[in-house]
Structure formats: structure tokens, C-alpha cells
Amino acid sequence: MVRKHTRRAAKAAFAVSLGVALLIGVLASGAAAARRSAKPAIILGSKNFPEETLLGQIYGQVLRAKGFKVTYKASIGSTEVINPAITSGKINFYPEYTGTIVADLANESLPRSAKATWQKANAYEEKHGLKLLKYTPFEDVDTFTVLRSTATKYHLKTIGDMKKLKSFSYAGYPECKTRITCLLGLKNIYGLKQVKFVSIGNTIPVYTLLKEHKATAGDIFSTDPNLLGKTYTTLKDTKHIFGFQNVAPVVRQSLLKGSAGMLLESACNAVSKDLTLNAMLQMDKAVIVDKASPAYVAKRFLQANGLLK
Amino acid sequence: MIAGSTFLDTLRFIPHHAGLLLDKTGETAELSFAALGVALAIALPIGLWLGHKHRGLFFALGVSTLGRALPTVALIAFFLPLLGIGLWNNLAALVVLGVPPILTNAYFAVEGVEADAVEAARGMGLTELQILARVELPLGLPLLLAGLRIAAVFVIATATIAGIFGGGGLGEIIGDQGSYRLSGVLAASLFVAALALLTALAIAAVQRAAYRRMSPST
Amino acid sequence: MSRLAAGPIIPSFSQGSSCERNNGWFCTDWLHQHWGDTLQPALVQHVELTVIAVGVGFGISFLLALAGFRFRLFDLPIGVFADLLYTIPSLALFQLLVPLTGLTVTTVEVALISYTLFILYRNIVAGLRAVPDEVLESARGMGLTRLQTFIRVELPLAVPALMAGLRIATVSTVSIATVAAFVIPEGLGEPIFTGLQEDLFKTEILAAGLLAVALALGADLLLVLLARALTPWSRLT
Fold first, then answer.
1. Fewer CB within 10 Å of terminal CB in chain A, N or C?
2. Are A105 and A98 in contact (CB under 8 A)?
3. Is the pLDDT of residue A33 over 50?
4. Which residues on chain B are in Cβ contact (under 8 Å) with C173?
5. What share of chain B is helix, strand, coil (3-state, %, to 5)?
6. What domains can you pick out in chain C, each with its CATH number?
7. Is C182 in CB contact (< 8 Å) with chain A?
8. Between chains, do B197 and C91 touch, taking CB under 8 Å as contact?
9. For residue A181, how many C-alpha atoms fall within 13 Å in the half-sphere facing its CB?
């Protein structure tokens, strides 16, 4: 499963300081070598789910090919844990979702376009000595997804079309039910008062509930490989309650100085441009379903697109 | 202190969410008692019969060790692809956990009944089934109930894990700290503990009554 | 650039075996590939969690049992406390300890140790109490002091009950420790939860589950052998 709020995320909030203390110990070793060569050493962190590990590998391998020294720190934890790691300099690069920065770090409302979301996220990061590079075309966002058979039966195209149903259920992770970017948005912004929420705990993927006909609709992340087949249809979020969750590398500003900084930025932007939804779905599938290693998948993709020899 | 404020929040959480807590306690009780019922139906006949025959000591001991060794999380996860999400995967796992203590105790309860009493009954012309029902079962009842009590506490405390596998009940609150905060987790676990203790006390009361009924003869 | 607006080229990633791609129950290639990076480390962590929890739990409950045994007044409150600890669901206890001890192994250990107390305390006290009065009488008759009686008579005779308690505590700890991964990514529960999140990958769930069962049964067998070695006199029964 590709999750921005992993099962550990909720707990992490309560122990951030302690978690970070632990983290600092783990990462301290990597920080020392940072200032030797002309090209700054990159300590590349990633959060604790497969898509992040994959993204880390994608950016990391390209930077390595450009002559940067890259050290990987994979599976660091949720946003609440990895953010202090980069602000304190224990890592200096990690891929993050723009909407997550706005909602969870800046605690602001989600803007109504991908660009505005990136700008708001970047404004937050710049206040903390960081910078957000360009964002990817793909986004990994919550969705409103139904079985294709359901969509055909009721002629559903957008979330608003759900008004045609007298009652229906929506399955999601526990956090969903109290968020305006999720269940409350469906009720208050789309006016779908008839929705019944099915909480599924933190352990089981949502799509299984749809497959077993235990919920009409569900919150499946947009890069979940299960969406690749013909089983599910994602309804269009015309009112953008789910916001925008494109990926952009968060980088410490010190990395972006001089010609080396320009090289880093252009190399990353070139990669980001190619990370389309279909590309990510296929790569996530290779990692999550087919159990290929993230490093291998990243390399194959970069080579096929001339980004790596 | 974090702990102190959590405790105060918990005191507030309970009256505010009394309806929810009671609903979920009901669900947990339903699931647990259903599992205990099925476990009893499976384990009791086997345990009693083996004990009566004085056979299968190794089996009875092995089952109890194996029962403890099976990790609930793995068990529910294992049943998930087989039985789907919801009632059945969780019920199956809890039954598997409830069987061993009942079976083992039923075995030793009957097996340990004094041979003289059984022989006397046999001499009076009672059939094997009658001996089991009228002599061995009443004499072994306290030990058998002790097994049921262990199984009940075990199953109720474990039933919370079902909450994170779509099984509902108090575990749904305990597994959802994101929504209910630590105070909700604590409140729900107090309700689990209360349910487990009350059930254990009820069984213990029956057990004591069984002892009392026996004591004049011993 | 020769590529057009059609987007990036997606190469074939076919690396996993057909068993892995079809989510089989027992994909040997996956096991082979991930024994070193997933299963083995989890198993080692699990062994550490268990050994420390049972070891420390035994130390604490032994001291408590001494108090409960020597001063009957303490017995009831200590016993009730140990019982109450056991009714707190493990899923909750791991979370409740996080604000105090953080997202650390310590949190897992404190919870696991608490659960061993319930089992060990009861068994140790029962074992010490079970020494027949005649035996104590004759010990006193031989002129042994109270301490000597305890060390040379009561303690050795309590070993079988004590070992029985250790067996139950160890096996239960192995099982309960799998729940810990819901909160802290440690031990064999971690591959189980990961497998669940990665589209219910059966091989990973089953492999980690079986390892946990094997660990519990293996530890049980070791303790049976240890008990026999410690109590040569009881080998006849």
C-alpha cells in the first residue's frame, strides 16, 4: 500500500521529540562528511512506504550519475518524523507530497490547484532554510473510487454523481472521518449527506472492502497499483476536496549554491518531469505487487528514458 | 506530565462517548462470547472424552502449548485472505485461541477424578456416558470452569486485535489513536479490562458454587 | 529529445516470479530473496525482545514472589496488580506507553515484561508454597536456618513449578510481541503488517507467522530440556 499516513503516522505525533532524538543518533554519522568536495554530499532520506523508497532511488541514482556523493537513509518515518530530520540537517534531501506539507506541516487549508499548492508548500519550506524543487506531473492523492460495475450501473463520472444514490458507504482510513479533505468534504462540500463511513482500521488495504462488496466506494490512493486493472473506476473530484499531492524534492538551501546547485536542480527537475501517473503506477506495481526491488525499478526506468546510462 | 493529562482526558472521554463505548463493548462481547461458544462446542467433547479414556495426555499438553504459541496477529492475518474481512476471519482466529485452555482443562478435570469413584459407578452398572455425565463431569467441574475462565480472559483481551482487522468492537477505538487520541485508547482499554474481569468473576462465581456443592462429599 | 508528449517510456520490470505476482501462499523465491533483509533481522529482533522480556520479568517477579512468599500480607495486592496488568489489551498497552518511553524498543519491553509478571509471579509463589510441611519440619530438625532451608530445600523443590511458569511466559511473550509492530516496527509482527499493507501478500504473512510459532515451540522445547537438566530427581515421572 502506498500511504502518506502510515499506520505509524498517528502514533508518531505523540512521540515526535523522542523519535527524533532516536533518529539523530542514527543519522549523526552521515552528517560529518558533508563539506568536502566541490559537489556537496547528499544525504537522501525517504519516508516509510514503498513509493517513497522508490522515489528516493530515482532521484538518488540520477544525482549519483551526475557525480554527487549520495547516501541513502530509507524508511525514516512519517512526515512528522522526517521533517525535523531535514530542518536539523541530519538529512538534506527528501521527496515529499506538496499537499502534505501544506496540510500537516504548515497547518493551512489546501489550495485549489497543483501550482498554488506547490507555492504554499514552498513558502513554508523556505521559511525553514529549505527549498522545494519542481513538482512531478503525477500525484498520489486520496480518491473516491468505486467498482467499475457500480460506475457503469449508475452512470457515475464525478463524485457529484453520487447524488443519484439514496444511500452508499465510503471506506477509508480512520483519519478520514474527521477531515474536511475527506469524509467531511463529501458531506459538506459535495452535499452527500447520505454517505455512511466504513472505518477499516489501519492495517487492511481499502480496495479489499470494495472487492468484497462491503463498501460502495473507498479512499484508494491514486497511485495504488490496483487501479491499473479494469476493476475500479475513480470518480472525478471536481471540487478538489482531496487537494493536490504532487511530489517535489525538499532540499536544504545550502545544497543549491553555485554551479553544483544548478546541476542538482536541473537534474532533479528533468527526472520529475517524467514521473507521470502512469509511470508511477507501473513502477509502484513492479515494487508492491511484483516484488521487484526499488533500486532495480528506478534504474530500469531511468535507463529507458535516457536519464541514466 | 503527559500521563496525567491523558488520565484527565480519559475521565472526560468516558461520559462524552458513553454511548459509543457501550456499543463497542457490546460488539466485543458478542464476538468474544460467540468465539467462546464455538470453542466450547469443539473443545469440550474432545477434552472430556480423552480425559475419560485416560488417553492423549501428550495431545492435551501439546494443544495447550501450541495454542499459546499461535500469534493472534498472524492468525487473523492468515484467515483474512481465506475468509474475507469482517466477522469470520476474526471469529475463526479467536476460536483457535479459545480451544486450547478449555480442551486441556477439560482433559485434566476428568482425567484427575479418583479412580475409586469411577469404579464404584461402573460397578453400579452405569454406562460410560453416564459415568462421564454424572460422576466425572460434576467432580471435574471446578477445574473445567477454571479453563473456561482463562479462555474467556484470553479471548476478550485478544478480541481487541480484531478491531484493526475490520472486526469492530472496542479494538476499533484502540486501533485508531489518530481519531480518538490516547484518552480514547485508554478509555476503551478500561472497558475491555472491565468486560474481561466481569466475565472472569461471573465464571469464578459459578466455579465457587460448584466447589461448594462438592465439598460436603469430600 | 526524440520523445513526444506521450510521456516517458515504461520499460518492462518483470523481475518477480509468477508466484509473487499472483500473490501465492508460499513463494520460495521471495523467501530466498528476502530472508536476509526482512525475515532474519525480524527473527533476531524477536528473539532479543523475548529473551530480555522474560529475563527481566523473571527477575522482577522472583523478587516480588519472595516478598509475597515471606510476607503473606503482600501476596494479595501483588497478585491482583499482576492480574489487572494482564487484562489490559496488548494493542492498547504498547500505545499507552509511547508518551512515557517513546517509539522505542523500551516501550515494547516494558509492555512485554508486564505481561510476564502475571504468569511468573503466580507460578513462583505456588511452587514455593507447595513444599510439604513434613519436608520443612525435617529440614528444621536437621538444624538448617531459615535461609538455608530456603536455598537448599524450598527453592530446588520449586524449580519444576518455576520452569513451568517460565515456559508459559516465554511462549506467550513470543506471541504477544507480534502485536508490538502495530506501534513500533520491531520483531516478526513487522513483516506481517507490511505484508498486509502490500496487498495482503500471503507469503510474507505466512512466513513470519510460522517463524513466530516455530520460535515459540523451539523456546518451549529448550526450556523443557533445561528443566530436566535442573531437576534430575524428577526425571522418573
1. C
2. no
3. no
4. none
5. 90, 0, 10
6. 40-231 (1.10.3720.10)
7. yes
8. no
9. 19
Task: Look at chain C and count its residues.
Answer: 237
Mean residue pLDDT of chain B comes to 86
Put simply, whether B42 touches A (Cβ < 8 Å) is no
User: Phi, psi at residue C213, to the nearest 5°?
Assistant: -65, -45
Give the tens place of pLDDT for each residue, C11-69: 888 666 778 877 888 888 888 888 888 899 999 999 999 999 999 999 999 998 888 88
Whether residue C20 lies within 8 A of chain A, CB to CB, comes out as yes
- Note whether A234 and A227 are within 8 A (CB): yes
Assembly ipTM: 0.79
Query: Which of A10, A199, A209 is the closest to B172 by Cβ?
Result: A199
Residue C192 and residue C200: Cα distance in Å, rounded?
9
Compare CB distances from C11 to A11, A12, A300 and report the shortest one's residue: A300
Helix (H, G, I), strand (E, B) or coil at A218: strand
Contact state of B81 with C202 under an 8 Å Cβ cutoff: yes
pTM summary value: 0.76
How far is the C-alpha of A261 from the C-alpha of B129, rounded, in Å?
A: 87
The answer to whether C91 faces chain A, any CB pair under 8 Å, is: no
Q: Does A25 touch chain C (CB under 8 A)?
A: no
Taking only the tens place, the pLDDT of each residue in C164-204 is 889 989 998 999 999 988 888 789 998 898 888 777 888 88
Residues A250-261, mean pLDDT to the nearest whole number: 94
pLDDT, tens digit (0-9, with 9 covering 90-100), for A47-88 = 878 899 999 999 999 999 999 999 998 877 778 778 988 998
Q: What are phi and psi of A44, to 5 degrees?
A: -95, 110
